Amino acid sequence: MVTGGVTKFAKAHPAMDFRLMVKRAYDYAARGIPNLTKDRIDGTRISYFSDHFSRQLKAASMVQDYLGLNPKGSVRIEWGGATGGECFQAAYEAVASGRMDVCLAAGYETMSRVATWKGNEFIALASDTNFDFPLGGFYTGYYALMVIRHIYEYLRLGKFAKVRDEREAQRLAIAEGQRIMSWVSVKNHRNALHNPYAQYPKRVSVEDVLRSEMISYPLTREQICTMSDGAAVVLLCDEARAKEFTDKPVRITGVGCGTDTMRLADRPFGKVPLLPHERASDYAKLRYPGVHSFRAGRSAGQEAYRMAGITDPKRELDFIELHDAYASSEIQTYEDLGLCRYGEGYDFTLSGAPFLKGIDYGLEVPKAGEIPVNPSGGLIACGHPVGATGLMQAVFAFWQLQGTIRQHFGDGTLQIADARRGAIHSHAGTGSSVTVSILERGF
Question: Does residue 30 form part of some domain?
Fold first, then answer.
């Protein structure tokens, strides 16, 4: 990877259509490589989630045309919430296979073109329309259901196991889960105060998060990402071309993806797929995955880690840009990616390990900086224009590894000192498809 660019993510960009948004992100990326000319680009992979938002079928072809890249080859990528992450990997595969020497990955979404209720309906069409959707299913409801089970499995049967009254035990467990999830929102919004591309940079307290509007119990408005407008691009090439373009490239050393059933009720129980630093005895009594964990995320992590030679991600990664569509799913994904064991996500959050050093969050975070998660602010604070989101993560990870956050953000607060290896993680559906990619500094 040799350059990248993003637009600001916003509730709406009424002055730009999807083509112009992608062009703005492309122009920013191109400024990072003075000797890049369009004839050097062999083809593109272009991602957007839904034709409904653009009100345009085959919109990727219009982006290709607007960028002036015809008659080069181009493929449109769509994979639910993981659309941008899959686009990144598709571009990687185009180069790694030898099909292209230089591939542009570009993604966007223009979600403001429809009312919020209609947008939620379109997104809900990415659930099983034979079973879940006709029952009134929508994604915040699905994630609320999953986190209730996660709380039951790991807080009700753990910290609150000795409370005999079942209703009181569950009430206490949910209240504790809500409180800890609010830490994730505090962290991500606070980080985003230093990210000029973020949609919702702000300082909030745990109490602010808990008092915000209840959307689907136990998830409040401040614990959920929003629909957005935005675009992002990255340029990937082989090593020979990278040396021509920049002296600060970033290598992609591992890619992985995983899948699971669209319908939650179809997910079978089995053994936990172990990472190298785990033991089967750690999970002897755990019914896995149930609806409390994302088997696709574990599978994607396993594949990417194996390819990159990572055996203990908490120790061997310097940061992760993680798909936090919900504060709850960020905690669930800590476990899936092996940053802590299954069941330890809440304590891992309270330890402060996923927080950045040197930022006042208004919380006690003794292990801050151990493995920063979403230093950019994540989806909760940056927004989620679906086709662009995974590529946005790649751009921010690229700048982290280059050590150029201050140059691009105008503020170096979010720069992780001497960051050498990071991961990006994209997640779709209720964990029906997930990508994980490992990025490392330099040649």
Answer: no
CA-based nearest residue to 107, from 22, 169, 195: 22
First to last CA, the chain: 11
Residue 422 is encoded by which pair of tokens? 């990071």
Output the CA–CA distances (angstroms, integers) from residue 163 to 151, 157, 166, in the order listed.
15, 10, 7
Distance CA 56, CA 65 (A): 14
Task: State pLDDT tens for residues 96-139.
Answer: 999 999 999 999 999 999 988 889 899 888 888 888 888 777 89
The two beta strands, 433-441 and 102-110, are: unpaired
For the CA atoms of 308, 314, 315, 321, what is the dihedral angle to 10 degrees?
Answer: 60
Q: CA–CA separation, 217 vs 214, rounded Å? A: 6
Q: How far is CA 313 from CA 218, 318, 332, 346, in A?
A: 30, 9, 16, 18
Determine how many CB atoms are found less than 10 A away from the CB of residue 166. 9
Number of domains in the chain: 1
Sole residue written with tokens 């089995």: 270
Query: CA-CA distance, 438 to 83, in Å (whole number)?
Result: 17
Give 171-221 pLDDT, tens digit per residue: 999 999 999 999 999 999 999 999 999 999 999 999 999 999 999 999 999
Contact criterion met (CB below 8 Å) for 69 and 38: yes
How far is residue 152 CA from its own chain's centroid? 25
50 located within any domain? no
What are the residues whose beta carbons fall under 8 Å from the beta carbon of 90, sequence distance 6 or more? 45, 75, 77, 105
Q: Is residue 110 in some structural domain?
A: no
Q: In whole angstroms, how far apart are CA 352 and each of 59, 331, 366, 422?
A: 43, 12, 6, 18
Residue type, 108: Y
Residue 343, number of CB atoms within 10 A of its CB = 19
Q: Which helix (H) or strand (E) holds 258?
A: strand 250-259
Q: Which residues of 31-54 are buried (b: 16+ CB within 10 A; e: fewer)?
A: ebbeebeeeebbbbbbbbbbebbb
Q: Which two tokens stand for residue 259?
A: 């899948």
CATH code (residue 285): 3.40.47.10
What is the residue range of 125's domain? 118-441
Q: What is the DSSP letter of 158?
A: I
Report if pTM > 0.85.
Answer: yes
